[in-house]
Amino acid sequence: MPTPRALTAADGVSLSRLLLAAAFVMAGSAAIRLGLIVAAGISDWLDGWIARRRDETSPFGAIVDPAADRVFIVVVIVTLVAEGTLTPMQTLILLARDIVTTVGVVVVRLVARLRSLRLEARFSGKVVTVLQFAALVGALVDRRTLPWMLALVALAGVISIADYASAAWRARTVAAVAVLLGFAPTPSHAQGFPGGASSSAPSRIRTEVRVDAFAARADAVHAGFGWATDLGTYVRLAGVLGAGVAHAEDRTAASGRVEVTGRFLLDPFRQARWGLYGATGIMARHDDGPGTRGYMTLALGLELPSERPGVTAVELGIGGGVRVAVAIRQGRRGRR
Length: 336
Description:
Oligomer: single chain
Structural class: alpha+beta
Strand order of the largest sheet: 1-2-3-4-5-6-7-8
Low-confidence stretches: 171-202
Mean pLDDT: 78
């Protein structure tokens, strides 16, 4: 087993992205900036290759690699926003995954009982980073491709967040996720992530990933990440963050929404194969161009038969247009 070093060759390659970020700000040519983004993407692959090739490990490297990615991407995005190349909504879509993970890291480091959680990079996170680089290239080369690249970033971001949440669930650290989302007290016993001690009580937090299609004056498709907390046996309060693209009047634009709903489950204990529920709430939707609008929502959902804790649901509703959605959400054995 190799001896960990304070700084490895792979760490040096990771740190080079900080210099590339500074060079991007100073560069005046789009071609040079494009080359810097490509170089940063290559270095992101190269540091991992060097670490595997030389069989090097470094506690510092576990932090500096993702941190260098985040610094480079944030510097590039802030520069493009300041110059008017990216809109605030497009920026939010690009950085949504990073905002969520950063909040998670801060919570883990500040809460004494969570400091033993072991945070590790996962493949799904690397996919989001690659797509972020590709979206930035699109912003410089052909802005017509940007809405579709942003949709891919949003979808991959939702999958990545769900992937980390799933790892926490498998490791019996859902209580830590509950603290992150602000719906539960700090757990009295929490250990490594993934790989912690089991919680003494079932989690009241249900996470989900979903895709919503809206048919209205501005048709839209959103990928979303959501969570719900039990307010009782039959009622849950749910929140959703969604992002994607909207199309209206031969124009495609970035789109996103924040939604809060109450769900009433008619079969919370899985006594029937199919679980019917109703939902109502409020939604704020933003589309580049028209701006932000508020809507009341009303939906009817059906959870499909499943022998696993996780359940798949389909929804039909109104609010911001006629909506059709597919969601995959956490349950627990014997419950929906």
